[in-house]
Amino acid sequence: MKKASLIVLSVLFVFSMFLAACGDKNEVKNNTPNASGNQGSKEEAVKEEPPKKDISLRVFSTFGGTDAARDAFQAALDEFTASNPNVKIDNDTLSANDDGFRTKVNTDINSGNEPDLLFYFVGADAQGFIDAGKVVPLDDLLNEDANWKNGFSPSALENVRQKDGHIYAAPLTGFYEGLFVNKKLFADNNLDLPTDWDKLKKAVETFAAKGIIPLSAPFDQSHYIVEHFILTAAGPAGQAKGLADGIDPNWEKGYAAIKELYDLGAFPKDAATIDLGMASNYYGEGKAAMILEGSWAFGGFSGAEVKENTTVIPFPVVPGGAGSGNDIIGGFGSGFYLPKSTYDNADKKDAAIALLKHLTSPAIIQKIATANGGTPAANVEITGLPQAQVDGFAMAANSASITTPVDSKISPETFSTLRAGVQQVVTGKSTPAEVLQEAKKIEDANK
Amino acid sequence: MKGDRKYIILFLLPTAFLMSVFLYYPFFKSLYLSFFRTKGFFDKKFVGWENYERLFTDRLLGEATLHTLEIMVYVILFQVGIALVLAVMLDHITRLQSFFRTVFFFPVVISGTAISLLFVLFYNYNFGLLNTIITSLGFEKVLWLSESNALKAVAIPTVWHYVGFYLVLFLTAMSKIPTDYYEAAKLEGISGLQKTVKLTLPLILSDIKVVITLAITGTMKVFEFVWVISRGQNGTEVLGTYMYKKAIVDQNFGYGSTVAIYMVVFGVLLALLANRLLKSEEFTY
């Protein structure tokens, strides 16, 4: 008898451990409001006036690690908790440079472990969880609060609109990409800035002969090469079509131009095996004269002299390209999402919306933009920026068109195929047409 | 004794449960996913055998398989070989034996990613350690990770990382050989190399088999060295990095899962083949 009851007890114990392990996820989602609810009712019993309930919000963003705006973002959160002492904020971050970032966000959302506010990309990246109804459209909230809505510059709001016509993400700062040029190296070698293809070719030849890397870029993480060569080859309209309805013949010219530059010795000798970080390192150390990068890159350049001598210009049009020579890549590629689970949670809803409005208020947008050099989503003036970043803003302001990168118009696997094609084309293993056909095949299979 | 069995089973259950949750469930989920075309996390459609058809026509997968096999050859020849030679030498000394054992074992506890980053700084063309040394000696810079070299360059840290592990396994096996054998050998007049080849090695043959099987299955999982040092470029793509690229970078979990299934099947087949080839009588002492 005794033995049997012991077994039953141990079985019960083991199973309770399983249950505890399984129940963990739900605890985060469901129990928090209950727990805080209990606390609230206890306090109600003690005090006569009901105080605000204690709420804990998990904010997931990329403002961590080496991000230039990390401190500014933390300060913005602290500001909010100082005026709302009942709210606790869990500042959860992961670097956007990491492929794991997308996986983490999507797994969280897919498994019912949504953060209470989510900072994530807009466009094709977000379409999955938007279609699944995991986040709330912000249109009504924006229309109800004119003060909040008018804080944004209208073009920024238009930029984050999804295909279905709704706005799901409140933008903070935008970005631009361009050709980062080390003015000093150009001046020292009596070269004009590469404002057109011939000047670029001359610069490449001159630098290559002198043992300076002309254009620092990796072939595997060739995101910015592919984006810029396709944009200037196909023009904004030709690029925006993507590959869904056939291959724009101009795209081939982009790849042909990459090969032309490669044959002149434009890229680092080890371009095949370095990553973006190392490419940026070559430029930042003054070993390379040019690099294709985005507005976030300033913080990564290590040499102070390089930083001072950098300017940003639009990438010149490749031979026969349809671009105007003043088209740039940029936009508001990310913003704060309000997950449906938070919106439906009566305890959290108001606090989360208040925090959302606080984080996207013009004052905070100004601080974040000052920190990370991005284009502000509000009509605020950014002062005290280094000359290179002022040049960058001027380039964006004076550009003929600003287009979002080509990877927001095609599936991730198609973009990988285009990236992998860079080395194939420059080494002559594939022709531009073959690479594009392969990419088209992948795009079709992904429909 | 009979009553104990129930408890033994009871205490085995948690492990079985954890294994099913973290190993078997994902495996069967991969099997399930390999029949779908996925686009991100929220969108998947059933495609039947399409992923498997792609598997057999995929040129990149074929290359990745060959590269994995090439690393496997290096691992079996050099990793197991060097470990065996070092173990034989260490077995002959008594002074400082534990010192050398610790020194050789140490790389095993360092994470592969850290070792890889170290080798990135060795191999870098512009300011790597190797090129700094040879330019200061007056030679031209060498592109260590060129298309013909890259796989060998990646194989070096891969081999080096685990030599110590197999060394310890071999040493343990050798220490289990009863001294009577050696005494008998001494009486018969066998010593030196002959003693090693005719006595030590045959007596630890079953351990060598285990180590080779471990080396084969371990090579199937090579990932971080390739990913960090060369990002799978210049002919270094292996099965691990190819699967990661398909599943995580491309978010094509369907085809990524198919590649994973292929890796499992391929690994099991290789291990079986190795066992068959190395089949011999077991020694007991």
Automatic annotation (TrEMBL), chain A:
<protein>
    <submittedName>
        <fullName>Extracellular solute-binding protein</fullName>
    </submittedName>
</protein>
<dbReference type="Pfam" id="PF01547">
    <property type="entry name" value="SBP_bac_1"/>
</dbReference>
<feature type="region of interest" description="Disordered">
    <location>
        <begin position="28"/>
        <end position="51"/>
    </location>
</feature>
<feature type="compositionally biased region" description="Basic and acidic residues">
    <location>
        <begin position="41"/>
        <end position="51"/>
    </location>
</feature>
<keyword id="KW-0732">Signal</keyword>
<dbReference type="InterPro" id="IPR006059">
    <property type="entry name" value="SBP"/>
</dbReference>
<dbReference type="InterPro" id="IPR050490">
    <property type="entry name" value="Bact_solute-bd_prot1"/>
</dbReference>
<feature type="compositionally biased region" description="Polar residues">
    <location>
        <begin position="29"/>
        <end position="40"/>
    </location>
</feature>
<feature type="signal peptide">
    <location>
        <begin position="1"/>
        <end position="20"/>
    </location>
</feature>
TrEMBL record, chain B:
<feature type="transmembrane region" description="Helical">
    <location>
        <begin position="159"/>
        <end position="178"/>
    </location>
</feature>
<dbReference type="GO" id="GO:0005886">
    <property type="term" value="C:plasma membrane"/>
</dbReference>
<feature type="transmembrane region" description="Helical">
    <location>
        <begin position="71"/>
        <end position="90"/>
    </location>
</feature>
<keyword id="KW-0813">Transport</keyword>
<dbReference type="InterPro" id="IPR051393">
    <property type="entry name" value="ABC_transporter_permease"/>
</dbReference>
<protein>
    <submittedName>
        <fullName>Sugar ABC transporter permease</fullName>
    </submittedName>
</protein>
<dbReference type="GO" id="GO:0055085">
    <property type="term" value="P:transmembrane transport"/>
</dbReference>
<keyword id="KW-0812">Transmembrane</keyword>
<feature type="domain" description="ABC transmembrane type-1">
    <location>
        <begin position="65"/>
        <end position="274"/>
    </location>
</feature>
<feature type="transmembrane region" description="Helical">
    <location>
        <begin position="102"/>
        <end position="123"/>
    </location>
</feature>
<feature type="transmembrane region" description="Helical">
    <location>
        <begin position="253"/>
        <end position="274"/>
    </location>
</feature>
<dbReference type="InterPro" id="IPR000515">
    <property type="entry name" value="MetI-like"/>
</dbReference>
<comment type="similarity">
    <text>Belongs to the binding-protein-dependent transport system permease family.</text>
</comment>
<keyword id="KW-1003">Cell membrane</keyword>
<keyword id="KW-0472">Membrane</keyword>
<keyword id="KW-1133">Transmembrane helix</keyword>
<dbReference type="Pfam" id="PF00528">
    <property type="entry name" value="BPD_transp_1"/>
</dbReference>
<dbReference type="InterPro" id="IPR035906">
    <property type="entry name" value="MetI-like_sf"/>
</dbReference>
<feature type="transmembrane region" description="Helical">
    <location>
        <begin position="7"/>
        <end position="27"/>
    </location>
</feature>
